[in-house]
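Everyone, carefully examine this protein record:
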Amino acid sequence: MKTILALVSGTVVALTGCASQLERTTASGSYDYLEAQERASLKIPNDVDQPEFSKEYELPSLGENADKSMLGKELSVQSPSLVLPLVTGSHVQEGERAATVWFDQVDDSQPLDRAIWNSLLSFLEEQGIGVDSFDPDAGKLVTDWMMITKTVDSKWYKWTSTESKIGKRFEFSLEKKSHGRTAALHVELKDYMATTKGDVVASISDAQQRREEVDILNQVINHYEYQIQLEDSRKLTKIRQGLQMSMGFDANGHPAFVVDEKYDITWPRLLLVLRKLGFDVKDLDKSTGLLFVTYIGSESNWFTSWFSSDEELLEEDDYRLQVKKVGDKTSITFMDNESKPFEANMIADIFEPFKQVMSEDNLDI
């Protein structure tokens, strides 16, 4: 008896799990309400006081453009598709019906529009999706056909399934604000075609079209976020590694340190070096490369560890540092608190301690 009950239970579970795709996207239960007729309103004689009828539960009338075929099994009960702004500085506008995401510039290493296009092209290449046309000046990119083979479930009692081939083409458009630091990426389903058992469907409902557009846009956003995380991880690894540094000159011909690394890596590395050498950063502006620091010394003075003389080569005072790009390298110019650059001999005196710490691996972050 227990064996029979177990078999029956297993069969019920199996049949329950075999719900078709249609049954997973439509309301369960009976559709008898589709046959219901509107009842006539209550007729009250003219010589009798008319009662007050509440309109609290009155259904709104359909608009002119409403799809009146969306009833019963044709009405999808899936949750609405939402654009997910996962990238730092991204957001969506409230009430926006189109599949659109806005990006704000948070990384000055490249123009915002170029970063978005590069990420989109990288995503398409990774997915094996071709590009039909691309005009960055006009802000338009049209993909080639994306061909997908899906299995469409039949009713559970038929125990069969059918393959459906779906083709899609999307158009991406990029809208930039005049200042260039904010841009919106919009996607629109340009063409659609589904083939099942020889039947071809070349159109879909507005709700399904939005679902397709939001789905591809969220994939692009996820790829963009992954690229940013990957790049941040690479930068972090470089920052922790030692950087080579030499004495040289900045773009204005002033004596300076020259670091063999790009600006975006040298900048955060320099902050770590300054902290370890006893400098307190009071203010900074990465966009201009200007640092306001105060030398407060440390428990083991880094000057005395390099020189036998007890005479300090740098007074505990306020200083300024100017960090600038020099091609693929970066210059660091030391100045006093009145922006007067250090002389060559002063740069030479403090070079060795800075070089040692700058070249250390696994510097604490």
